Amino acid sequence: MIFQNELNILKTKIIKLFLIQLIVLIAVMVIFKLTNNQSLTPGAILGLTYDDKSLPVELFLYGLNWSFAIISSLYIFMESFKLGIQNLFLRGSLKKWIIVKTILIIGYVFIYKCIFYIIISFIGNINYLNFQMFLYYPTDILLSLIFIFISLLVLTFLKSYTTSIVIICMLFLVILIFPITVVSLKTYLYILLLSLLILVGLFYRIFKKRYYNIYEKI
Amino acid sequence: MKIEVKNVSKSFKKVPVLENININFEPGNIYALVGRNGSGKSVFLKLLCGFYKPDAGEILIDGIDIIKNGDFPPSTRALIDSPSFLPELSGLENLSLLAKVQSNLTKEDIEKTLEMVNLTEEMNKNYIFYSYGMKQKLGIAQVLMENPDLMIFDEPFNGIEEKTVIKLREIFLKLKEENKIIIISTHIKDDVKLLADYIYQFDDKRITLIENVE
What we know:
The structure holds 2 protein chains of 2 kinds. Chain A is mainly alpha-helical. Chain A contains 9 helices and no strands. In chain B, the strands form 2 sheets. In chain B, strands 6-7-8-3-9-10 form a 6-stranded mixed β-sheet, with helices on both faces. Chain B has a 4-stranded antiparallel β-sheet with strand order 2-1-4-5, covered by helices on one side. Chain A binds chain B through residues 1-2, 5, 9, 12-13, 79-93, 212-214, 216-217, and chain B through 46, 49-53, 71-73, 76-78, 80-81, 83-89, 94, 97-98, 100-102, 142.
């Protein structure tokens, strides 16, 4: 039931966030196009690819797309903490709730990206919708993991969400200045595993810091 | 249910907040904890709920140390700090969501609880549009709805109109007759004078019994 209710809550939130993000992305693209006179591929317009790394516009839109995906997922995650860690703890369902939440957030980021891939397929008549699409863009996932890692690090040490989000955005732009080259699948998997381990550790730390000693019961 | 707090101490960043607290809570009584802001009342309530771990001492519920052996305190509901609910859902939906976690309350049961706290008219309104008093009422309803054995309220009457406060007092007295333990903390002693069987004062990191109505 928690899963179903969480989905219902997220539905309205996601639709709103998605529309806002789409509008901002298109607005940024239009402004850049008007001021820079550069031609962009449909993928670049929606911030899905940055095929031509010499074009800072593409890189910026790419970064913006990922920023939106990750920041909004973190926002949704933190927002639903409002349900009350205390209320759930006293009902003995905190562990279950955190598992559900984590699954939903990971799902959200991927669904978010998929929706953009569907849109690009319509706009550009390009077949991005295949099983290996994420492997075509391993940097997507890698970048997101590094970004999540830094975001959680910031959230761990700062109490204000607003300040944290601002710092996270700035850090994300710094990451984008040094774009990661496509690595081999083996190396990629190693990094993925390492990042996941760090993520688990950070989640644990965040809980310890923010939510008293409840974490000891999880 | 019987609660025993034995020699409990708690400090934050080496600053002691509570020192050597000893108190027992028996069923069929209303306990009031009074003290100025920052005297450690809320910290004490969080210790009772298992949100904080005491630095020393133990908290036993029916003889079981909830910190060491328990998963979460049995049959306990609490309103501590500000009530927290999902803003996109109505008051009724928020309570339904929480009720589904452990109990099998019907919609009618929840509506009845909302009526008890005079929130019927606003129960279908989204939580985001609730006033401070309405949020407080929903927080109280969240505690009451599953009829737990131990009910903990931190400043429950804050922001609530007199009519509802009077009604809540009657409800608390009725629950007391049903053998429940009710613990209310407040910084205004007059809030609980009409209600409490025992009034404890929090001061200088210690707890003292200042009034025993019985």
